[in-house]
Amino acid sequence: MPLDPSKFPKAKKNILSREEVKAILRGEGKTRPAQVITPLLFVPEEQPERQEFMQNLIEEYPDDAVFFEYTRPANFGKPGDRYVWCDVEGADPMLKLKPGETIGIDEKTALDWETIQKITRDIPDPFAPKSLVQNYFEDDGRYRGVFWTRLSFERLWHFRGMSETLMDFYLNPDEIKDLLDRLKHVLMRAIDRASSDEYKFDAIAFTDDIGMQDRPFFSEDIFIEFLKPHYKEVIDYAHSKGLDVWLHTCGNVEPFIPHFVEMGLDVLHPIQKYTMDEKKIAELYGDKICIWAGMEVQRILPFGTPEDVRQEMRFLMDTFYHPGKGHAVFSSGNRLGKDIPNENMRAFFEEMYEYGEKITKEGRSGNHESPATTKDIHP
Amino acid sequence: MDQAFYEELILSVTRGKVKDVDRLCREALEKGVSAFKILDDGLLAAMQIVAERWKNGTVFIPEVLIAARALNVGLAILEPYLVLGNQKPKAKVVLGTVKDDLHDIGKNIVGLMLKSHGFECIDLGVDVAPAKFVQAVKESGAKVVCMSALLTTSMIHFTEVVQAFKEAGLRDSVLICVGGAPVTATFASQIEADIFEPDAVTFAEHLERRLA
């Protein structure tokens, strides 16, 4: 499907085609950097004014690649349900809470191993729902992908709770490996559907937050023993079906990046600021993997000035984009929260396009430092 | 008990070997070793090693959690003897995540680390309103309040908790401690928090020093 510019009547930019984005991913991009923000553009319904603002902004600056999201399986269902993570009657821990008792996100779906063993082994089945993709629209010539949230560690802790999962790596390693094996088959079915004639996506994207602010959640040894084989099988399978693989993983994941490269991951997001040295990562791996560089959302976007945002965008592009090759696309580092001022949001979109054009024509200036190097940005 | 005993106990804690910790603590008590000595030279010495390794970046959360779990098994065995020795908890600490924030892994790890340093923790859970923090302090007599937030949109509620303690006339009688991924030392200072540390291990040590 060739790109049809008339489908973007309010656009203030040219849109990149599927082939142009693919070229960027492979380090053969001759165009400006691609904008890929909308997977992270979550605006709750209770903010109608914000929704309208963002809708207008995205019409002015449409993404160069489109990502849809698979409808997530419910955490709990009843026996016979095919698109749920747990079909064991009465297993939901929330049903057992006492009045006034609270439970955190990290533990609220946590199950014991006995219950996990009772779950029907081949659920959830991504082919079970008639329609699986939210807000779907037909191919318009742009690169298209679909998000399946929670690749492995995130899914493990949704089964077991965060604390238990982290200890399970030592205390219940066989059970963890068995759970990952089950999960692999679910992911392969999700890949099958993404690559089927029904959707024909170019990519499948996963989330798996395995980093904290100052270090990963777990050691490289644990990654190599448990997650790397799982990631590798899923990535190989996606590639065999013609899909690129994009991965969002927050926090400091520096020890794992060489493994991502080795296993053939195509795109890595976001190289979170304040957790890793972006220049070092770009220098070591920038020509080996496409970086989906994310504008920082804990300090700069919500609490910086519009000029801070523009400066940071110039820094990110100078750091990660290789004019004439590409190997980087740009976005925010995580969900765009309600505390980000509209003027910062506009600066973010505008500068991504304007500096992207400039850097493509004139090359990297090398003069742009992050505002974080000279300012302590905070609320 | 000889040095080899304490080395085995320390190794059992740092490797999270719960059954071994259980066995070794009971054996030592049966042989008349003081619970305080088992605690200081075995269990707490082991956690000190884990803390050092954390600071050096050679261990991660799983290793801290399994060690804390093993330490708690040992503590449960020693506890009756420690009470007989009239040892009082170091201080009561109230902790919770602030309003609108349900992310509690950090808070839970802080709780584990504080317990391993001998603090008594009153965990209010998640999405805790400012008044509930104040009420918990009034009821328990806690001298320390720990609150955490993962989201930039919820960490602004720290200020409301500080204000609630001021309005209750309790601000000067509690140490207010804040933490969480987006929190910085500058922000903590700006909202008049007393202690900020970037991680649970460092924080537990800081609090122990502060209250020494």
Q: Average pLDDT value of chain A? A: 95
- The radius of gyration of chain A is 21 Å
> In what range is the share of β-strand residues of chain A?
5-15%
Low-confidence stretches of chain A: none
Strand order of the largest sheet of chain A: 1-11-10-9-8-7-6-2-5
- Series of secondary-structure elements of chain A, N-terminal to C-terminal: HEHEEEHEEHHHEHEHEHEHHEH
Got a strand count of chain A?
A: 11
Can you tell me the CATH architecture of the largest domain in chain B?
3-Layer(aba) Sandwich
Count of DSSP helices of chain B? 9
Return the average pLDDT of chain B rounded to an integer: 93
The protein's oligomeric status is heterodimer
**CATH classification, class level of chain A:** Alpha Beta
- Number of DSSP-assigned strands of chain B: 5
Second-tier CATH architecture of chain A: Alpha-Beta Barrel
Description:
The complex is a heterodimer of chains A (379) and B (212). By secondary structure, chain A is α/β, with parallel strands linked by helices. Helix content of chain A is 38%, strand content 12%. Chain A has one domain: TIM Barrel (Alpha-Beta Barrel). In chain A, helix 7 (220-240) links the parallel strand 7 and strand 8 (244-248). Chain B has a five-stranded parallel β-sheet, sandwiched between helices. In chain B, strand 4, helix 8 and strand 5 form a beta-alpha-beta unit. Chain B starts with a helix and ends with a helix. By secondary structure, chain B is of the alpha/beta class. Chain B has two domains: 3-84, Methionine synthase domain (Methyltransferase, Methionine Synthase (B12-binding Domains), Chain A, domain 1, Orthogonal Bundle); 92-211, Cobalamin-binding domain (Rossmann fold, 3-Layer(aba) Sandwich). Chain B has helices at 3-14, 18-30, 35-56, 61-84, 105-116, 130-140, 157-167, 185-190, 200-211; strands at 92-97, 120-123, 144-148, 175-179, 195-196. Chain A binds chain B through residues 101-108, 162-163, 166-167, 169-171, 212-219, 222, 297-299, 302-303, 337-339, 376, 378-379, and chain B through 16, 57, 59-63, 65-66, 69, 97, 102-105, 107-109, 124-128, 151-153, 155-156, 181-182, 184, 186-187, 190, 198-199.
